[in-house]
Amino acid sequence: MDTSALIGILFGEPESDACTDAVQDAERILISGATLAEALIVAARKGFGPQMQRLIEKIGPDVIALRRTASQFSTPAHPCPRCPR
After folding, report:
1. Is 28 helix (H, G, I), strand (E, B) or coil?
2. How many whole angstroms separate alpha carbon 61 and alpha carbon 68?
3. pTM here?
4. Distances in Å between the alpha carbon of 71 and those of 17, 28, 44, 68, 78?
5. Which of 24, 43, 58, 64 has a beta carbon 3.0–4.6 Å from 48's, enabling a disulfide?
6. pLDDT, tens digit, for every residue of 23-37?
7. How is residue 27 annotated by DSSP?
8. Where are the alpha helices (DSSP H) in the chain?
9. What is the pLDDT of residues 35-81, one digit of tens each?
10. How many CA atoms, within 13 angstroms, populate the side-chain half-sphere of residue 6?
11. C-alpha to C-alpha distances, 41 to 15, 21, 38, nearest whole angstrom
């Protein structure tokens, strides 16, 4: 799970229904510790820290470590013009 999906669900953005369905259909949700921290920081800065915390608790993801090699492999899967290749 990534930050944009959590933010989208929290704020009811246009793609949030698809994200919510994916979460409900998943057997297991994984989130990196870094992503978890980022989502909480972003939500807190927008004044929605407690709501994000409740959403994360409701989803109940398994928090995993993201090692350097895994993060390097994830970059091509999530193209971004500012991301180094």
Report:
1. coil
2. 21
3. 0.73
4. 27, 20, 25, 5, 11
5. 43
6. 888 888 889 888 999
7. S
8. 3-11, 16-25, 33-45, 49-59, 68-77
9. 999 999 999 999 999 999 999 999 999 998 866 655 555 545 444 44
10. 30
11. 21, 25, 5
